[in-house]
Amino acid sequence: MSKKVLVPVHHLKESVKALEYLSNLFARQECTFYLLHTYSYKMTGLDSLQLLHEDEAFFAKPKEASENLILSIKARFASAHLNNRHTYKAVSECSNLISSINRNVSKFQIDIVAVSMQAIQKGLYSFYNSKTKSILEKVRSCPVMVLPSTVVPSKRSKIVFASNFTEPMGQGELVQLINIFGNTNIDFKIVQVGDENFLTDEQIENRDTLKVSLYGISKSPVKEVFVNSLDSLKGYGHEHAKSIICLLDRKPSFLRRLGFAKSPITTLGPISKIPLIALHV
């Protein structure tokens, strides 16, 4: 079955690099990449009456610029990365980005949204920019992959599923993983977050249940490792350049919806050179 990937695009260089990574990741699969760019009209100094008198060029220029950007990205990428299994479709809309992503996920039955980004550096720490955080918080109908600008394409990747396993992985999230990566040349690894000497029987059972489920789609035996915390997970990611970190992002709590709590995804923040996938429950 063909995979459908929605790729919001903005800057030429970042978007081409993201497509290079995705093309390598799904090299053996039939795949359609929907290149989405949204635009708006600059209303500064214009009231609704003035807007009625604007000529067609006022409305045509932003749309034309948006379409030309997508064409430039396709031309720059496709000329050097031919794959008969892959097709690229342009989606240019005058719309809010989040609304457009959610609408097109439903319209095209998208399997995964892949977002390219640049991290915000503050001293020794890096953070997601506001656009990326908004996508992670508000696009929940399918998995979201965040690709840092430093991501390195690889011929063989490993999905690293990280959790404290206090709760079992739902069947729906497992189906999402299988749908996306079931026919790829990918291995799976499980990372238990927490002290291995103080695991409950329930945590061990939840982890082992997932391990058995992954045997059917992993190209090699599913290995297990331990890290003490999310910060340690970030260090693990830095040392494993061919990994893709996968985390569950459960339904936001009341406090999180009010802005008083963060998801584990945004708390972890970007990892240099490594993508992160948010699986939404």
Descriptive account of the structure:
With 281 residues, the chain is α/β, with parallel strands linked by helices. It has ten helices and twelve strands. The strands form two sheets. It has a ten-stranded mixed sheet, with helices on both faces. α1 packs across α3. The two termini are 23 Å apart.
State the end-to-end CA separation: 23 Å
Instruction: Tell me the fraction of residues in β-strands, as a range.
Output: 25-35%
Query: Care to count the β-strands?
Result: 12
Based on helices, strands and strand pairing, what is the structural class? alpha/beta
Major beta sheet, strand line-up: 3-2-1-4-7-12-11-8-9-10
- H/E element string? EHEHHEHEEEHEEHEHEHEHHE
Contiguous low-pLDDT stretches (5 residues minimum) are: none
**Count of helix runs:** 10
Topology:
Blueprint: E1 3-8, H1 12-25, E2 31-39, H2 48-52, H3 56-78, E3 86-94, H4 97-108, E4 112-117, E5 120-122, E6 125-127, H5 130-138, E7 144-148, E8 157-163, H6 171-181, E9 186-193, H7 201-215, E10 223-227, H8 230-239, E11 243-249, H9 254-257, H10 264-268, E12 276-280
Parallel strand pairs: 1-2, 1-4, 2-3, 4-7, 8-9, 8-11, 9-10, 11-12
Antiparallel strand pairs: 5-6, 7-12
